[in-house]
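Morning F.,

Quick status update on the modeling queue. The single chain you submitted on Monday has been processed. Sequence for confirmation:
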Amino acid sequence: MHKFKLFIVLLLSVLLLASCVSTKNYSPNNKFSSRALQKDFSLLRNILEAKHPSLYWYTSKDSMDYYFNQYYTSIKDSMTEQQFIWKILAPTIDKIHCGHTSIGSSKAYVKWIRGKQLPSFPLYFKVWNDSLAVTGNLNRKDSVFKRGTIVTAINHQKPAQLIGRIFNYLPEDGYANNINYIRMSGNFPYYHRNIYGLSKTYSVDYIDASGNAQTVNVPLWTPAKDTTKKKRDSLVRKTPKPPKFSKEKQLQSLRSFTIDSSGKFATITLNTFSNGRLRSFFRRSFREIRKTKIDQLILDVRSNGGGKVMSSTLLTKYLSNSPFKIADSVYSKARGVGPYGKNIKGGFLNSIEMFFISRKKIDGKYHIGHLERKLYRPKRKNHYSGKLYVLINGPSFSATSLLCNNLKGQKNILLVGEETGGGWHGNSGIMIPDIKLPNTKTSVRLPLYRVVQYKHVPKTGTGVLPDWYIGTSYEALIKGYDYKMSEVIKRIMHEVATKN
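Structure tokens below.
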């Protein structure tokens, strides 16, 4: 036994050392041969065709075969990892129209890029419809592009062309691209750099303060370089450590509950269904609402990308007035990930779990029957039946779209804001391990189950649509306030005043 333990320790030490060496010697400029890239791509295709439950949901098999063949034959020369991701993998994965099927860089690249700044197009935008409004500028001395400046072209490409092309590299459920507007708004330079490449200068058309069309050449932004290691070390020593947040503040960043100073309404902000001690949080929050007799509630799930289905279901039980199910159907194409277990993270354990939770039905699919059959009833204790405004938008995804689907149409509830990123008809998920490509070490998320929503709407490719649409406000963008929240509060205060 002692020798066995010693062997395990030595083995782990060797693996750790090998990992450290490979990471230390990593360079993003290293190229993989076309043969190695083709092997990774072929393996990915084989796994997707065998295991992805919705590969042909929005794109026919003939079309997917065409795209697979097209991008395979595009691998003619060696490429870096990032070139492989953005030239080959991203546009291929986009064609599946599955928001849970996304690409991740290798661990070595993630470690290498951490803390680094790369040259890029310098302007950040709020992106909506066919519009680009400046929200940030990496060229600090630039006096032209201030917050709110409307840009009408970059290198002679109109916003609609830019947005449309970038959409072809980003995953989404069906055609619910609302989430991709948010992604672009969060880091436009990142997407522009990886999809369009870099230019020494950019021709940018914009509208000036007088309303006139102007054009200016904008230089590529490059990060300042440290001249000596000594200077870098000095900067490191002088840089204060980031503050440590208490556990309570960390929890508050995940979910929060407040009652307005007027005492007329309460707000629950819920940014995840994955963690945050949600069971006790829901219990305390709805108990406080009952005790204070609050009958106007705002539920903000605009940053909630989903998480645990049972947490979403628990919240629905506090809010729904009628019994509901999680889904009409939940099924996979297989009862395990074999014979690709070694290429899928946690492959063996995933196969075991799939074996025990699913059963083959007459349609040949492997269904999670209890998620299809179980009828959940509303909670009696601390159930909320007052007016509810649910703030939604593109990042409202996955388990959040299940919540929104079950609440939509209830008389006391309004979904407010913009279309969710999570599919209204359904999406794919439940179990989502990573495919690990052996040569580039790139990862691709693989949802294993298709989820068709309870009382599902036709498969049109939209997210859950709001009952009260509130889009982008240019004035709010300039002044920096939350327009959607402001409009809901204004309506609540008007209703309260009218009632009194």
